[in-house]
Every structure is written in C-alpha cells, then in structure tokens.
Design brief:
Distance between the termini: 19 Å
Helix content: over 70%
Order of helices and strands: HHHHHHHHHH
Largest sheet: none
Radius of gyration: 19 Å
Strand content: under 5%
Length: 253
C-alpha cells in the first residue's frame, strides 16, 4: 500500500521545539493514516490479552493464574511486535519527510534487518528504565528521556544496543526538559483518551467492544508516538549537526 506524500520543505531549524514535533508528527500521520495506523494496530493486538473480559475474584484467586499467564504472554508478544512496528513507522516517516511515497514492504524489510539489535535494545532499555522506576522513580524518568531516540539511532545509524543508548544520550543533551515535556504530553493525552474510550465502550457495548476499541485507539496513538520519536530524532540531528533529511535518510537508499 502506498500513499504519495506532498513535497516537504527542507528543514534547517537551529533549535528543537516540542510544538514543531507535534505538528510534523500529525502531518506525517494524516498523510499516511491507514497504513501507519494499521501497522501499529496489528502490533497492539497482543494487548488484547491484557484486558480482562471476565471478573477476577481477588479473594479466592479465581481466574488470576490464567490472567497472569496471558499478561506475560501479551507483554512478550507486544514487545516483539511493537519493536518492529516502530522501525517500520520510522522508515515510513523518513520517506514521507523526504517527499517520497510510503511502501510498507520496503519499510518492513528495513525493520526486519535490524530485528535482533532492536529487540536487545528494547530489553536493555526496558529493564534499566523499569529498574530506575522501581528503585527511586526519578532515574526512570531521566533514563527514559535520555534514551528517547535510541530506536532511531539503532535503525538509522545501524548501532548496537549500548551504542544506540550512548548516541541517544548525546543527541538529547541540552534538550531533555523539552523531551520530557513531550513524553508527559503524549502520556497524558493518550491516557485520558484511552480511559474515556474504555469507560464509554464498556457502558455501550460491554467487554468485547471495549477490547476492540482500546486496541484500535492504542494502534492510532502508538503510530503517532512512533512518528514523534522519528521527528524528534530528525530535529535533534538538524539542530545539533546542521544536516538535512536527505543526509540523515541516505542510509536507506
């Protein structure tokens, strides 16, 4: 599936701005809504396993074991699927910003070529950020912000997991409060919309409709979030290194 994008102006801004990230991410998604949202919706399907469709009795533990099993299975499958989806969206977003059409097959090939480094990166980053939240909370936020563009660093610059984290730390330096604000804004908007949708669909159509609606919404918002990461990486490199989109994305040619 393809979607011909309108030509874009070459970016030459000297500063990184959160508002510009939102604007560009929205523009990219709006031009490629169906293919991009479809990719991340499929990736979010394992999350359906995390949404209980029947009552869990906390006093007797009825259905608790089954739910915990589905919880871990869903998380594992989601990590695998969403990691690849991020790489697919990243490549597609860069193609769009270059004024080129999006080709899902090509983007998927790019993602699969970096599958193992991306999975290792997701595991390392997830473990360390989770540990930071578990121990002192604040380090979790710091590391999450510092490593926000680890995935595009891994895909675009073909770095290993640790090198990707170091590269992200380098790129985000000097802009971390802005990036933290971006992360918080994405979390608040996504969380509020998800909660509202969950309540509305449960009231209207019950558990099954709730699962379908929540997965679709997470797919849409997940696509926006993945695009925001790609745009952030692009804008940070433009601001810090003074290069343009063609120089950044030449690795895909």
């Amino acid at each position: 599936m393809t979607n011909v994008s309108v030509p874009v102006t070459r970016f030459a801004e000297s500063d990184f701005r959160v508002g510009r990230v939102f604007e560009r991410a929205f523009s990219v998604l709006s031009r490629n809504f169906l293919p991009m949202a479809s990719v991340t919706t499929v990736a979010y399907l394992p999350l359906a396993l995390l949404i209980p469709t029947e009552r869990i009795d906390t006093t007797t533990g009825a259905n608790l074991g089954r739910y915990l099993g589905l919880l871990f299975l869903g998380l594992f499958l989601w990590i695998l699927a969403y990691t690849i989806a991020q790489a697919v969206i990243l490549h597609a977003a860069f193609q769009d910003m270059r004024g080129r059409p999006m080709h899902l097959t090509e983007s998927l090939q790019v993602g699969l070529r970096r599958f193992f480094p991306l999975i290792l990166l997701a595991i390392v980053m997830g473990f360390l950020v989770g540990l930071g939240f578990l121990l002192f909370i604040v380090p979790g936020f710091i590391w999450m912000t510092m490593w926000y563009v680890g995935t595009p660093s891994c895909v675009v610059e073909r770095l290993g997991p640790w090198q990707s984290l170091r590269r992200s730390r380098q790129l985000t330096k000097g802009h971390r409060w802005k990036i933290f604000g971006l992360i918080v804004a994405l979390a608040i908007i996504g969380g509020m919309a998800n909660s509202t949708l969950d309540l509305a669909l449960t009231t209207i159509g019950g558990a099954t409709l709730k699962v379908i609606g929540v997965v679709i919404w997470n797919g849409i918002w997940g696509a926006f979030g993945a695009i925001a990461v790609a745009v952030t990486y692009h804008d940070l490199r433009v601001a810090k290194e003074g290069i343009d989109i063609e120089q950044i994305a030449a690795v895909f040619d």
